[in-house]
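Customer ticket, subject: "Can you confirm the structure for Glucuronide carrier protein?"

Message body: Hello, I'm evaluating your service for our small team and ran a test protein. I'd like someone to confirm that this is what the system normally returns, since I don't have a reference to compare against.
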Amino acid sequence: MDTVTAAPSATAAPRLGTLQFAGYAAGDAANNLAFSMTSFFLLIYYTDVVGISAAAAGTLFLLIRIWDAFADIFAGRVVDRTMTRWGKFRPFFVFAGPPVLLLSVVTFTVPRQFDGGGAQLAAAYVTYGLLGLAYSLVNIPYGSLAAAMTQRPGERAKLASFRMIGTAVTTIMLAFVVSPQIQQYRGDPDGFQRSLLITTLIFAVVGVALYLFLFLTARESVQRDVAHVSAGQSFTTLRRNKPLIMLCLSSLAFLTALFSLQTVQVYYARDVLGNAELLTALTVLSVGAIFLVAPLMPRLVRAVGKKRAFLSFGAVGLLAGIGISVSPPSTPWVSMTFFGIMGVSTAGINTLMWALEADTVEYGEWQTGVRTEGITYALFSFTRKLGQAVGGAVAAYAIALGGYVGGAAVQDQQALDAIRYASGFIPVAFILIGMLIFFRYPLTEQTFATMVAETQARRAAR
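Agent reply: Thanks for trying us out. I re-ran your input and got the following:
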């Protein structure tokens, strides 16, 4: 059995510094220049620029994001088999990061490449599918990295908070940059296409710099006894990891809720509230909540534990979703308030998900003696991608059933109601499912501390 030299225990490993936390935040900022760009704006790009119907786009989202989910499993196996002089995870940020950003440009350039509805739809499938595969090869190493940087619960919670801050900064920036373009070029698809091409090219340059910063500042400090993990070892660890399975099922429901809302948020601003530029305000309120939640998360975890905190944030989301659907469009401030409350819920749940996933790596090693960060995070990401697929598809189908007409200056009341329900009531249903599943999650803080201590004792005895 080959062993990779690293710090022998959580207590002996050097503490993470400001550069490590900032670099980790930069990594997810780079990820979201592609990921959040598609999550928030790809559907409206397809319906209002490319000319794909909402129903056809919903099917595309469902199929491609399921493809993305299986790409995550492939990427997890690639990661687990990799070991270089730069570490197991860091090389992917340099070699896989730039292709992701360039494919994001291509994904938002479909009309420039092809003419005709059928050819455009085929191009959308190909470009978005390639983007998903490339994204898996950078996101799986990125998500796996936290478990290899530290075993300290406080530092893991802080890494998760910085990750969410990186996401929030990018998402708010996207709203400020892209929302005015949607309003300015309404009814002018060619103008919107030109503007998006310039925007995504700039994002690609910025993203490469952010990935390089992550590569230079990250360090992999946690000791592993097996450098190159076999397929059998990977799947044995997954099969025996009950906390991971419970987390994945709950996350599937929560992510379905989140992506239903994200997919139609731009429609909510433009069509329900009557002004696409209000998307900026909705995004600042909902995504900006992370700046309130993140500094409090380590303290909250110490006070009540991850499980209770997770369920509490879910309850907040139930209240917010109902409010979003029933708020009168004539008083936008009411809707904005509930979007802000939903932001607190999603910020808390997402931050805790990353910390919980890292804990399941320790559980798997405790059970089997093998650390499998890559395939563990890949399965977690697999279920998140399924949630993205189902949430995006459900939202698209909902507005299609409501009679949404792409490019129309005004939507009828049935279409507006469908947008409101996809923004609120659909997320509420899936949040409730996620909470019911997570009630059975078995890992507590005391259990985690015992596992890590026993694993270190076994290693010391060898």
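A couple of notes from the result: The radius of gyration is 21 Å. The domain at 18-218+229-461 is CATH 1.20.1250.20 (Growth Hormone; Chain: A;). Feel free to reply with more questions.
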